[in-house]
Amino acid sequence: MRAPTTCTTRLLAAAAVIGSVGLGLATLGCNGSVSSGSRSGGAIKRAPGSAAPGAVSQQVASIDVTSPEPGSWLADGEVIVTGTVTDRIGVGITSVLVDGNPADLQPDGSFTCPVICDPGMDTITVRCENAVGDREYSHYSYMVGETRSADEEVLDAVLVRINPQAIPPINTALINFVGEFDLESALLGLNPIYTNPAAFGFLPLEITLHGVDYGTVDGRIELLEGGLLVYAEFHDVNVPATFSTSALGIDLDADLSATRLTATATASAGLDANGNLTIQLSPAQVGIENLGIANSPLPPSVESLVAGMVGGFLEGILGEKIDGMIPGFLDEQLGTLSQPNTIEVFGTEVTYQARPTTIDISSAGIEAVVAGNFTVERAEGVPQAPGYLTTPSVAPVLLTHKAFYASIDDDVVNKVLYTAWQGGIANLDIDASTLQSFELEGIDALTFEAISSMFPELEGLVALDSPIEIRMRPLLPPYLQMNTETAPFALCLGQTLIEILVENNGAMQSIVTVKLQARVGLDIGLENGELRLTHGTRRPTFLFDVVDQPLAVFNELRIQTMLTIVVDAMLPGLLDVTRQIQVPSFLGLQVTDLELTAEGSADDYLTLSGNLVTVPVVPDASGATAGAPGAGAPGTPNGTAVATGN
Length: 646
Hints:
The chain has 646 residues and is of the alpha+beta class. It has six helices and 37 strands. The strands form seven sheets. Strands 1, 27, 28, 29, 30, 31, 32 and 33 form an eight-stranded mixed sheet that branches. Strands 14, 15, 16, 17, 18, 19, 20 and 21 form an eight-stranded antiparallel sheet that branches. β8 (104-105) and β9 form a beta hairpin. α1 (6-21) packs antiparallel against α6 (556-576). The longest helix has 39 residues, at 300-338. It is elongated and about 120 Å long. The protein starts with 5 loop residues before the first helix and ends in a 20-residue tail after the last strand. Residues 1-6, 14-57 and 617-646 have low confidence and may be disordered.
């Protein structure tokens, strides 16, 4: 049994609602726009000899589409729909419409009709009408467009741009970072230090460092053509040390002091032969200004010689240490980014990978493109698919009036939804045992009593305390369409089988199986630093066909009402997942002025843009400070927001 989700919780709650309302047909309202079953002008038609009023009539006709095969993936949207329609009550079929277009109907009931399917997920509706005005509907969903192998990554998945406005707050954060740099450990790790006898053979010298103190700290990053300038400086550096020289018989404890220690390097980014993003750092240039030995008994000439010798030595050794530490650290982080990572989603292992493909650094900013991939082992029972659906993408030109931009291709979103479907994450089995994983107020059991008002035809045939089970099997993956006519986004569910079973004579027996196609318009926004998908006042629209009802023939209006409640219950659970997506922080900086827009000439990229601001450092009652990482470090004024990227 798959671990229950928020969606499951809401479905169970919906079952309780269905059981508690006990509404009759006269008071049932429909929140969604629904199309299904046998109807004429919206009214249920009774055929001669059919069930009594209140029950649906026998099927007036059966519709069977043979091509394209229902639920298939179509590379081309221009298709010829073929099929047959069979008269069930002997009055004759007079017309067939396919998506509102008249079909060529033959005397034997076969029909053909050319249609053009829209890219993405599309549903074809076939309607037939008989000589007395009875109508029958059937609905068939398809995935339309180009597909790529399930293992193939999404190219140009994410575009990132950092503009010069982001540099001042980044520099402020860098000051905090440099202030936390463990310069003492870096220097003490050099002990003991020996001079080069070949250069100063007459004065062999051994130096042991004991610690490092410094005053204020500064640091900055500057945008250059082809790279970055990285600069850090420490003011008023003091290094307690022991100087030993056998030539002069001196074993001296003294302080090395300098007015400033600086380190400058340039960094360029590129891709190696394997396509991994790497950082190339130029040899660091280290400078030590006004280095001297405090309280030294050495003669001034010897002190000057020792200070110059030690200064040059420390500059060289510090440069080597920086050259070894920083590129290795950056390469390790970027290497992790490029490696596959596996996470568990509702008990299913999903592997994801982000691979940088290009990076361009100039005085105008930093632009990077990342390819992304999500893969999963296909779950048993999930339909075979030729691959994930991809649409032509036109990358947006990211603007420059904000500090940063990040654009994500809609193919990435749909690859995630496809991967979830392939892994069986969307397959739900909801039964009595599922309740053991919940603490739901007012729901102690999942029994037929909860839905009995929807199926009065089973009164006396099924005990009210009989356990029930709901099974959901999406035959096509969920699909997100962008920039629709009525909403920025639309979530499409195509050909999902919903089966309700009840325990009868010790075995689970099917009551009804319905094929459902649903669609809901969505808005996306930001609330408390979280991305939120909402449907606002929009109601889901859905089409359904009754596939099987082996125990009794049910009233379709009641099925329609039940599906409305189920879809309404599913929707918040699906949308709640987005609340787990936090807007990321960056170097402890606060993200402000966030906007979400659809970008690109094809409106197929979702762009998040914003500014950066340093987090104010606020003293607490004890005089300590809180705020950004490194807040209160030397050189950082307390109680103020140092810089913004607005």
